[in-house]
Amino acid sequence: MDSSFLNDSGSKSSITKKQIINLCISEESWSIADFSKELNASIPTVSKLVSELVDDGFLEDLGKVGSTGGRRSSMYGLNPDAGYIAGVDVGRSHIHLALTDFKGRMQLYKEDIPLKLGSTPESLSALGKEIKAIIKEEGFDFSKVLGCGVSVTGRVNTDTGYSFSYFIGEEQPFSDLLSKELGIPVTVENDSRAMAFGEYRCGVCNNESNVLFINLSWGLGMGIIINGKLYYGKSGYSGEFGHFPMLHNNQICQCGKVGCLETGASGSAMHRMIIEKLKQERASTLSEKFKKNGDLTMDEILTAVEEEDVLAIEVMEEIGTNLGQGIAGLINIFNPDLVVIGGRLIIGKDYLMLPLKSAVNKLSLNIVNRDTTIKLSKLERRAGPIGDCMLSRSKLLGLM
Fold first, then answer.
1. Do 4-79 and 83-197+384-396 share a fold?
2. pLDDT at 121 over 60
3. What count of Cα atoms within 13 Å lies in the side-chain half-sphere of residue 320?
4. Percent helix, strand, coil in the chain (nearest 5)?
5. Angle 383-396/191-202 helices, nearest 10 degrees?
6. CATH topology classification for 207-377
7. Which sequence spans correspond to the domains of the chain?
8. Would you call 141 exposed, middle or buried from its count of C-beta atoms within 10 A (0-12, 13-18, 19+)?
9. How far is 159 from 188, CA to CA, in rounded Å?
10. How far is CA 203 from CA 20, 158, 197, 377, in A?
């Protein structure tokens, strides 16, 4: 398979080949005449490039389709066997990994793989070895992996490949360091933006092109999609929704400021509020675990929500109200088609969503919010790794 055009950003034929593949991502089947019209290129030129893409295994001939008159046209679409794309979402003490075929269909997904990434060569090597090992152990040929997308928390400049959470002082960006370990191109993205893109491409989104994705996990982040494209801002750091200064709770945020929304609407906020209430000897099924260990894990708290513990539900509803206030402001500013709520805390479902929607209805402008839908994530924990796969493929094709 000749994939050299993927690394060629200058020649006209390589650019046109990438454009042809991009059209097949948007719509599954195209004729030579359709390609020619859409790309404003001659039919002989398009025929030659499509033929090369078929020979190289990136496109496949889907057969002929009928028409109202004249000869039937051959249709072309992505060949799912052209190669794989890997996606890795890096958490605090674990990673989630997805593998898709070239058409974007998921072939492998594994979550909660124990791995704590640190800014050391040994840790980076461990991450690279783990990615390769899992893919090989599941029976996939790693040599067919064309690229890998990785998402991490915190500020990320996806253009340069630098993460400001990992390998900050290195001369080479995180993306280049991991690319050397894996031997394939690597794209690095902020976790909330990766989740937003995954949900946009493969999740709950239908025809919406203006979408806000809220990542309600240990922290609080946001991915913004405007006119079908991720919005990064001037320096690539858009979406710091959790650090909007709107609460008068005198709580210091992890960023060092006081009253950030994250201090009242996040997993860390829920953990703090639960502990405070247990110290006040509020009744809860969590009381014995707290007395025994002096602390609680996020898993224990979320399990209590699922088991309808009254105290856990009370705090979840408070989180929903606080978050709804923030989302009301976002709706007034962005007037989006859709707001998607994702992240670990969506396990609260109605306990989260009912107070959230109530606050939105109360505080946002009716004329603005009436065209906005609020939904829970469809992909849930898979959103990040799938988004990483989609972003990696887009980067390979020069689409971002």
1. no
2. yes
3. 24
4. 45, 20, 35
5. 90
6. Nucleotidyltransferase; domain 5 (3.30.420)
7. 4-79, 83-197+384-396, 207-377
8. exposed
9. 9
10. 24, 22, 9, 7
Cα 290 to Cα 278: distance, rounded to the nearest angstrom: 8
The tokens of 177 are what? 């360091």
Global pTM value: 0.90
CATH class given for the domain over 4-79: mainly alpha
Token reading at 118? 């640190």
**Four-residue CA torsion sign, 399, 95, 183, 176:** positive
Rounded distance, CA 34 to CA 47, Å? 11
Q: What is the pLDDT of residues 195-231, one digit of tens each?
A: 999 999 999 998 899 999 999 999 999 999 999 999 9
Q: How far apart are CA 128 and CA 121, in angstroms?
A: 11
Query: Which pLDDT tens digit goes with each residue over 336-372?
Result: 999 999 999 999 999 999 999 999 999 999 998 899 9
Q: Which of 315, 195, 217, 206 is nearest to 262 (CA)?
A: 217
For the chain, the average pLDDT equals 92
Residue where the block lists tokens 């710091």: 240
Evaluate whether 19 touches 58 at the Cβ level (below 8 Å): no
Q: Please, are residues 178 and 305 in contact by the beta-carbon 8 Å criterion?
A: no
The single residue listed with the structure tokens 């989740």 is: 195
Q: Where are the alpha helices (DSSP H) in 56-141?
A: 121-137
**CATH for 83-197+384-396 (3.30.1330.30, 3.30.420.40, 3.40.50.920, 3.40.50.620):** 3.30.420.40
The answer to whether 39 and 20 have CB atoms below 8 angstroms apart is yes
